[in-house]
Design brief:
The protein has 471 residues and is of the alpha+beta class. Among the domains are: 3-88, 2-Layer Sandwich (Uridine Diphospho-n-acetylenolpyruvylglucosamine Reductase, domain 2), CATH 3.30.43; 95-213, 2-Layer Sandwich (Uridine Diphospho-n-acetylenolpyruvylglucosamine Reductase, domain 3), CATH 3.30.465.10; 217-335, Alpha-Beta Plaits, CATH 3.30.70. It contains 17 helices and 19 strands. The strands form four sheets. Strands 12, 13, 14, 15, 16, 17, 18 and 19 form an eight-stranded antiparallel sheet that branches. A five-stranded antiparallel sheet has the order 5-6-10-8-9, sandwiched between helices. It is globular. Belongs to the FAD-binding oxidoreductase/transferase type 4 family. Keywords: FAD, Flavoprotein. InterPro entries: FAD-bd_oxidored_4_C, FAD-bd_PCMH, FAD-bd_PCMH-like_sf, FAD-bd_PCMH_sub1, FAD-bd_PCMH_sub2, FAD-linked_Oxase-like_C, FAD-oxidored/transferase_4, Oxid_FAD_bind_N. This is FAD-binding oxidoreductase.
Length: 471
Amino acid sequence: MSVLKQLQDIVGAAQVLTGEAMDPYVVDWRGRYRGQALAVVRPASTQEVADVVKVCVSNKTPIVPSGGNTSLCGGATPDDTGRAVVVCLARLNKVRAIDTDNDTMTVEAGCILQAVQEAARGADRLFPLSLAAEGSCTIGGNLATNAGGTQVLRYGNTRDLALGLEVVTAEGEIWHGLRGLRKDNTGYDLRDLFIGSEGTLGIITAATLKLYPLPVAQRTAMLALNTMEDAITVLSRARAGFGASLTGFEVMMGPVLQAVVRLFPQQRLPFEGASAQSPWFALLELSDSESAEHAQGRFEAVLGAAIEDGLVTDAAIAENIAQSKAMWHLRESIPLAEAELGKSIKHDVSIPISSIGRFVQVTNAALQKRFPGIQHIVFGHLGDGNLHYNVARAPNQTEQELLASQYDVYQLVHDSVHAHAGSISAEHGVGQLKRDELTRYKSELELKLMKQIKTALDPQGLMNPGKVLQA
C-alpha cells in the first residue's frame, strides 16, 4: 500500500493534501524559502499524529511539523526533494482544561495564541505570552521555537510558561507528560529538550501552561530619548522602581517609528515638534496588582525623576485603554512598515543589556564603513536584551544589491554579537536560516552534544531534517 493511501486511511482523504493544495504549506511566511512535499497531512488527534509518524518511519519518509507557518527562519518549510510529509497540527485546536486553583490550562498544539489568551481571560486569568503574530501563530509553534514577545521581562519565554507537554516521539510513541507541577525533580527534564527544538526531536501535540492573575491596573507610556544608553539607564530605574510589576520595556530607533506614521497615516506618534523627531523611543508597561492609583503614583515617581535628570526628553502616558493600544500598535506595526519599505536583512539577536549601547554603536559604524549609506532598523525588547537589528538598503541601492551582500552583513553583525557575548538567535529560532551559522559560534563540544541528543531521540534523522543542525 502506498504512503498516501496509508495516510488517507488514518486521517481521511480530505485531510491529505497534494498538488496545488499544498502551496500555502511549502513556502515560509517571508517568502524566502519554498520547498516541495509528498503531501500535507492534517490529523485531528494526538493518536492520529502518532499513527502518521509510524507510517512515515516505516517508509523512511521525512516529517516536517507545521503550525501557523509564521516562522521567520524557514523552520516549517520542507526541502525541495519532495520526499517529506508536512504534518499540520491546525486541527488540534482544543482547550482541554483550565484549572484556576492550580493556575494552569491544558491546550492542544494547534490552538491559535490569541484564542489561548482569550480562553484564559474568560476564566479571569492571564496567559502572558504576546507577540505580533498572535492572531495566527500556534502554541505548538511557540513551544517549538521557545518564542519570546513583549512580556518576557516579567514572565519569561514560552519555556518558562510551560509546565508539561504531550509529545509524539520520532518513533510514533506518545509521551504523556502533561503535568501541572511547578516542582518535579525526577530525572532529566525532557520537557525542556522538546521546547525550542523546532520539531527536530518530536512533535509537541499539547501543553500544560501557567496562568496568572489578571492585573488590577496597567499603565503604558512612550518616552522620547536621545541615546540607547539613556534607555538602558531608564530601564534600570524602572526595574528598581516597579520590580516585578514592570511587564514590558521596548526600544525603537526614531526613524523606524517615524517611518511607521509616514506609511500608515492613520497612526500618529503621541508627540509633537522636536520630540516626534527624537533619535530613540521607548515603550514601557506597568501591571499593578493593587490599584490604579498605586500604579499611577509609581509611574509618575519613576518617570518624573527620569525627566528631571535629563534621561527622558518627553513622555506620553496613556490615559485609557485606547491610547495604550495605539502605542502598542505603533510598535507592532514596525514589521509591516519594513515590508512596505522593501526587503531587508534581519537579525534576531540577544546581548547582555549592559553591552547593548556599545554593540549598536560599534556595529552601526562597522556597517557604514563597509556598506556606506546602508540604513539601520533597530528595535526590540530591551528589557530582556533582545534586539531586532535589521539592515535596509541604501538610497542608491537596489534590493538585489542589498541581498547580494547579505552573507557579508550576517557575518559582520553576528561576529559583533559574538564579540559582545551575545546570541545570534534570541526568539525566532534557528530553522534553516541560521543553521550553518551555528558552526561559527557554538563550540565543537556544544554541537557534538546537540548531535548526540538528536541521534538518540531521532535515530533515523526523519524529524524536520535540515533544521537547526547540519545533516
